[in-house]
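Each lists sequence, tokenised fold; shown next:
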Amino acid sequence: MIVRIDSLTFRYPNGTTALDGVSFSVEAGERVAILGANGAGKSTLARHLVGIERPASGTIEIDGRRTDGLGIAELARTVGFVFQNPDDQLHAASVVKEVGFGPRNLRFPPARRTELVESALRRTGLNELRDTHPHHLSLGERKRVALASVLAMDTPVVVLDEPTTGQDHASVVLLGNLVDDLATDGRTVLAITHDMDFCAEHFDRVIVLENGGISWDGPVAHWLAQVADMAGQTLELPQMTRLGRRLGWAGPVSTVAGFLERLASEADPAPVPSTAP
């Protein structure tokens, strides 16, 4: 397994408990969405994975090593973190310099650095913007630059904080394909998100945080089946699930592919009885 968290507790200086005994593990290649209402502790949990926050008690193990005593620079070799606000991590004078900063700082050989930077620019659709200053780009483009800078570091774990916020449809599709590709490559992806459509389409597992603890941990489809008929949910169900309910379908449908498959089956005419003797 790549990430193991055991009894993690964290309190802010004002005494507020943000995380209270959180425990879970994630295998290599898993795609895990971390959900919850504002203030549930999602971003606080993510910041622990890169050493920005340190636990009051409990342990974190990443790639076989406990994070106790490991600095942010050392953790950056294993965990790539894409902030919700890209301006919190962009600093270079051009896109290509920004994307190249991580692998250069990690002292990758020059040929490997070039390979990683070019691959990251291509995969995020930024090659034509490589010489542009990041602060001259739109929010969605800056978020892709931040993502590319993490991809270029080639970490086994990638953490995304609200990745679809401020992105247009094409960028969300590109991001979803990247998440799928990373998992295929054996890299672990954890995403903090309120975007239930993105979660349903591209993630295998859901961890729901509530009041600093885990209220659900399991497959996306099982979670949707449980919450589809529950009132008062703080997270909006995927569009396909809501549309299926409007059509009176039994059981949750969460993805576009699932919806089209169900629609085709509902539209199939009943077989005509044979009149042959």
User: Anything to note?
Assistant: The radius of gyration is 21 Å.
